[in-house]
UniProtKB/TrEMBL annotation:
<dbReference type="InterPro" id="IPR036412">
    <property type="entry name" value="HAD-like_sf"/>
</dbReference>
<dbReference type="GO" id="GO:0016787">
    <property type="term" value="F:hydrolase activity"/>
</dbReference>
<dbReference type="InterPro" id="IPR023214">
    <property type="entry name" value="HAD_sf"/>
</dbReference>
<keyword id="KW-0378">Hydrolase</keyword>
<dbReference type="InterPro" id="IPR006439">
    <property type="entry name" value="HAD-SF_hydro_IA"/>
</dbReference>
<dbReference type="Pfam" id="PF00702">
    <property type="entry name" value="Hydrolase"/>
</dbReference>
<protein>
    <recommendedName>
        <fullName>Haloacid dehalogenase</fullName>
    </recommendedName>
</protein>
<dbReference type="InterPro" id="IPR051540">
    <property type="entry name" value="S-2-haloacid_dehalogenase"/>
</dbReference>
Length: 109
């Protein structure tokens, strides 16, 4: 999880889901807000994986700037059909729901 929240709010948000997160990176820890590439890189470093070994699920089209800068494949969960921000690269897959996420991830394995 990579979030623009503070450490405290990021941990609270992550705890709302019954998921055992492998990595939570906040803007406060990274020293930079998304879409700067450094929070995404910090997550990859903490996970010990290269960008081509990972994928990112974006909730904002602005994530596309940062994920593209580090080489992360990106699924944009564009639930309200927003236009891609000017100059943002295309997501590898853009969908209004998460229905195609798992099948997409399976193609990357």
């Amino acid at each position: 999880m990579v979030t623009n929240c503070s450490v405290r709010l990021g941990r609270l948000a992550a705890a709302r889901l019954a998921i055992d997160w492998d990595c939570i990176v906040t803007a406060e820890e990274a020293g930079f807000y998304k879409p700067d590439p450094r929070p995404y890189r910090l997550a990859l470093d903490r996970l010990g994986v290269a960008p081509h070994e990972a994928a990112f699920v974006a909730g904002s089209g602005y994530d596309l700037f940062g994920t593209a800068a580090v080489g992360l494949r990106t699924y944009w969960h564009n639930r309200v059909g927003l236009a891609r921000p000017d100059g943002a690269p295309q997501a590898d897959l853009e969908q209004p729901t998460l229905d195609r996420l798992v099948p997409w991830l399976e193609t990357l394995a």
